[in-house]
Design a protein that fits this description.
Layout (H helix, E strand, L loop, with lengths): L7 H7 L21 E2 L7 E2 L6 E3 L9 E9 L5 E10 L3 E8 L6 E6 L7 E7 L6 E8 L7 E10 L17 E2 L8 E5 L9 E7 L8 E6 L7 E12 L4 E9 L4 E6 L18 E9 L3 E9 L6 E10 L37 E6 L15 E5 L9 E6 L7 E12 L8 E6 L7 E5 L9 E9 L4 E8 L7 E11 L2 H6 L6 E2 L9 E2 L9 E4 L19 E5 L9 E5 L6 E13 L6 E7 L7 E7 L7 E9 L4 E7 L8 E10 L25 E3 L1
Antiparallel strand pairs: 1-4, 2-3, 3-10, 4-9, 5-8, 5-10, 6-7, 6-9, 11-14, 12-13, 13-20, 14-19, 15-18, 15-20, 16-17, 16-19, 21-22, 21-41, 22-29, 23-28, 24-27, 24-29, 25-26, 25-28, 30-40, 31-34, 32-33, 33-40, 34-39, 35-38, 35-40, 36-37, 36-39
Length: 684
């Protein structure tokens, strides 16, 4: 996603683009084309003089947003959505993708940054075999005078990084501002310089005011993973007096050199202004996470010549047939439900990490994945020794790549809890391991999430190590749900979260309290609930985050708290609702999930659980189908005593049916303390 400021007089030229506009494109000159305002919200209005649509007045305070619905788009090839827009005051703008069968729209791009000029948003649209709609949502906010305006929408059958620089908005390419040295647009009538009349990018050393001046031309940020062959053509004069390079740059600002122009003696070309020979370049590009291209020219002085750039294109096939495909990090993922995946132990350590499961009970937490599944346990008291190290090796991962490693650990047993678990990088060949993390939280029976960004120049393996020094310092530790993705953890965490997923870390995600049909409220909490011997010790998402619960101490027996989802679109397809629930306490009442249609007097029961279910977060998966608008209701009923706190977390709506549905029906157990101690562990 990249933004480029444009003066208004240039915008008037954009509508004369020669390229054919694909469905969903609109210049908003005389009409809004095939777009329409959703009548349930504020209206987008066509400006009579400025050739754009806008939302300016907040007529209904409770509905201070306008929704623009696009036509059906049937685009089976990769395409680029480009929008010229302006946001002022406290307004915001969001682009979404609506597909039949999905309860929620997919957020493609969003901004809340006001500007005093027009900007460009560039969004990659992946190949799709399904018809979809583009939905644009503008919110005005509370500040008086806020507005949202759209000048043009163009959808082209190209990648957003491709450009021939014929359009006045330059495909969203921008100069990284330098006071003296910048790329400029030039137009040529010289057929030797271009294939006919056209525009190209040009940077000249005569603009330099000091040594080592640098000009940077930056592409739009990719918004989808891409890999393939990047092509462009260039000319340069006085190549020995400047350096022309191409870099990729991620959202953290980290550069990686992709290509550098050879010196003239290696090109066998008479480099002179009269020659004007285009040099074609092909570069293999792997961009599994958002990056932007940076074309950089560094001049040594005012006699450093010039560089000309044109015809940037991209193909999803690598330039060289021998190029290794982008590494698939999912081979390092494991929830240990079906074995150890690609994680191994040495022969010496072969029995130290053991796969096990725990039946729901009131003393020991089960696994993180379902609450009743499998995880790995190191230093279990059944194989207790002194002075040994438990090592678990992950699969090899290629170097020169950035990874985000996420896993969960849980401290067990009665022994020490100091630095029980650590993670290392191992480079093989007997080299020394590099420590990248060590455990610091000491809470027991809580699954704590860990996220680590890993970057190494060499191939490496992640190694989980648990050390048992002696009987007093040998706490057992569980490991579960290891996941590796490409990219920086901090950037992945800051990306737009799907509206269909709610972990309650940023609020209620559109859920609301039912003020009419209940006698209590769901409360946002972090850590243990106020009443002892009931409720969770931490949330399911990270172990130290937020969840929703009912606080039984402020309710009476039989009182209900009802939580309503936002309005969901209906579908003829099966839908999946998945969530985690916690029902620990001797007085636990009942948790139920209902389908509310608004057309029937009684809600339809989809799922229910009653009575104490142990100290684990348990996963519930519910398949349902309804083809009209509806809401999902979570209803918790307070039990006989104050030890009746019920909690939910990590609510997900997905196009169904639910994956592994048959395995998710965790039995609703009536628990007694006599039969639910540590002996409920099952080693595999």
């Amino acid at each position: 996603m990249e933004e480029k400021m444009l003066p208004f007089y240039l915008l008037s030229l954009i509508v004369t683009v020669k390229a054919e506009l694909l469905p969903g494109s609109c210049s908003f000159q005389d009409s809004i084309c095939d777009y329409m305002s959703d009548p349930d919200f504020l209206s987008w209005t066509l400006s009579p003089s400025g050739h754009f649509i806008t939302v300016e007045e907040q007529v209904q305070e409770e509905q201070g947003k306008a929704v623009l619905l696009g036509p059906d788009v049937d685009q089976q090839d990769w395409s680029c959505f480009r929008m010229v827009y302006q946001v002022t005051g406290s307004a915001s703008l969001q682009v979404q993708k609506r597909t039949d069968g999905e309860s929620f729209d997919q957020v493609l791009w969003t901004t809340q940054s006001p500007s005093d000029s027009w900007l460009i948003a560039s969004i990659d649209l992946q190949n799709s075999t399904e018809t979809f709609k583009i939905v644009i949502e503008g919110k005005l906010g509370e500040e008086e005078g806020s507005s949202v305006s759209i000048f043009e929408i163009k959808i082209s059958d190209k990648y957003c990084i491709e450009c021939d620089f014929e359009e006045d908005h330059l495909c969203g390419y921008t100069n990284e501002r330098n006071r003296y040295m910048n790329w400029r647009v030039r137009r040529s009538d010289d057929t030797a310089l271009n294939d006919g009349t056209g525009q190209y990018m040009y940077v000249d050393s005569t603009d330099t005011k000091s040594f080592q001046e640098v000009a940077k031309l930056v592409s739009p940020m990719t918004t989808e993973p891409i890999s393939g062959c990047l092509s462009f053509q260039f000319q340069q004069y006085h190549a020995g007096d400047h350096l022309f390079s191409l870099f990729s740059r991620d959202q953290a600002g980290q550069y990686q050199e992709l290509w550098r122009a050879d010196l003239p003696e290696n090109n066998n070309v008479n480099w002179s202004p009269e020659t004007r020979v285009w040099m074609p370049v092909q570069v293999d590009l792997k961009a599994p996470y958002p990056i932007e291209l940076v074309f950089e020219v560094a001049f040594n002085g005012p006699h450093g010549g010039y560089v000309i750039l044109d015809q940037i294109s991209f193909s999803p096939e690598f330039c060289n047939a021998g190029t290794e495909p982008t590494f698939d990090p999912s081979i390092a993922n494991c929830d240990f439900e079906s074995g150890y995946c690609r994680y191994v132990q040495t022969q010496i350590d072969s029995s130290l990490w053991r796969r096990m499961s725990v039946r729901p009970n009131i003393y020991t937490a089960g696994d993180h994945t379902t609450g009743a599944g499998s995880f790995l346990l190191a230093n279990s008291r059944f194989s207790l020794q002194s002075g040994y190290v438990s090592r678990l090796f992950g699969p090899p991962m290629p170097g020169n790549q950035k990874y985000c490693l996420k896993f969960f650990y849980s401290l067990r047993g009665l022994s020490g809890a100091d630095q029980v678990l650590s993670a290392y990088l191992y480079y093989g060949n007997g080299t020394k391991k590099e420590q990248i993390w060590t455990q610091n939280y000491k809470m027991k029976n809580v699954w704590i999430a860990v996220e680590l960004t890993i970057q190494s120049q060499k191939n490496a393996q992640v190694v989980f190590i648990s050390t048992c020094k002696n009987i007093w310092s040998c706490g057992s530790v569980g490991l579960d749900d290891i996941k590796v993705t490409l990219g920086d953890c901090a950037l992945l965490a800051s990306s737009v979260s799907p509206p269909s997923h709610c972990d309650f870390e940023a609020g209620l995600c559109g859920f609301t309290q039912d003020k009419e049909g209940d006698s209590g409220d769901w409360m946002l909490a972090r850590g243990p609930t106020p009443t002892s011997y009931t409720g969770p010790r931490g949330d399911h998402t990270t172990g130290v985050g937020h969840y929703l619960h009912i606080e039984a101490s402020v309710m009476l027996p039989g009182h209900k708290a009802r939580l309503l989802s936002s309005s969901l679109r209906g579908s003829r397809e099966t839908q999946c609702l998945q969530f985690y629930y916690h029902m620990y306490g001797s007085g636990i009442g009942q948790l139920s999930v209902y389908l509310q249609t608004g057309q029937e007097n009684q809600d339809k029961l989809l799922w229910t659980s009653h009575g104490e279910q142990g100290i684990s977060w348990l996963r519930a998966s519910v398949n349902y189908q309804y083809d009209q608008q509806h809401q999902i209701v979570f209803e918790a009923t307070r039990g006989a005593s104050v030890r009746s706190d019920i909690a939910i977390d990590d609510v997900v709506f997905e196009r169904g049916p639910c994956r592994e549905y048959a395995d998710d029906h965790i039995p609703h157990l009536r628990l007694s303390g006599n039969n639910n101690d540590i002996q409920s562990m099952n080693f595999k």
